[in-house]
Amino acid sequence: MKIKSVWLSLMLSGALLSGCASTSVEPQGASPQLLLATPRQADPQLEVSVAKITELLHSGKMEAEEQSKLFYERAIRYDALGLRTLARLDFNQAMHLQPAEANVFNFMGIYATQASDFDKAYESFDAVLELDPEYNYAYLNRGIASYYGGRTDLAVIDFTTFYQLDKQDAYRVVWLYLAEQALDPVSAKSNLQQRVALLDSNDWATGLAKFYLGEIDEGQLLQSARRGLTKKGEMGERMCEAYFYLGKQARIDGEPSRAINLYKLALATNVYEFVEHRYALLEMRQIAEDAIEEARKAQESMPQEPQA
């Protein structure tokens, strides 16, 4: 699922959808059910666009507003290419030149969430909504920050607001379920069942919600990714989503090693601008942190040898 912004959707819709075609194979040594899409390759159009914007930035003096927009445009291209350090530098430049820009705050909040700098993320998304109360995706992004930052109750509030704006969006249903499940699994499953009834059964993403509901299994979800493909690279996008959400279920089921393997498969798609790709690595870090904490507690609980 893409994290949308006004400028991003307008300027990148053509370029991002023209990525490398994906094919499905079975990874060596993996379960026969697992599919692996060809990783997305760097889009030459984006690379050329970066070069042209760089040339414009070096061409001479311009107004701060125009320069800020160019830094922003180059940043979102860097982001789509997976060059997130360069993107963050450009977002910082854009913010310095034009501080009151909701799109820039949105991306800075996303990057802060990826870095587990949750206080900065909350501040950034609060700023987005102050600057533009109609910036609906700020509720999703702030909800994700709250979810990973351990403020699950606040995440549910933001995800609920985001869901109410479009009850036929399966991704909104899924994220709201994940947050509710962390608080009350039984109630979350009941709510999920009611929400799934409103979704389009022909939409690929509805399968993700049905998987959590238990109406389809992992194999059926992955097989459904092959059906109804309409554009180049769509298989890779679906695999990125599927493996991320399968990884989430593996974590819920207490299978951290399996979850890590699934997150690695999501990352291998190179669909950098998708929510699922952005947070797969954060999921893996949290699993590692949990393991370290469990080991520490186990060590502390061991009986100490009496000192001589």
TrEMBL record:
Keyword Signal: yes
Residues making up the signal peptide according to the UniProt record: 1-23
Gene3D superfamilies, sorted: Tetratricopeptide repeat domain
Chief localisation class: membrane
PROSITE patterns: PROKAR_LIPOPROTEIN (PS51257), TPR (PS50005)
Superkingdom of the organism of origin: Bacteria
One Gene Ontology CC term in the entry: plasma membrane
The TPR repeat ranges on this chain: 102-135
Keyword presence, Ion transport: no
Subcellular location per the Swiss-Prot or TrEMBL entry: Cell membrane
Keyword list, A-Z: Cell membrane, Lipoprotein, Membrane, Palmitate, Repeat, Signal, TPR repeat
Subunit structure: Homodimer.
PANTHER family found in the cross-reference section: TETRATRICOPEPTIDE REPEAT PROTEIN 6, UDP-N-ACETYLGLUCOSAMINE--PEPTIDE N-ACETYLGLUCOSAMINYLTRANSFERASE SPINDLY-RELATED
Function field: May be involved in cell division.
Protein name: Lipoprotein NlpI
Gene: nlpI
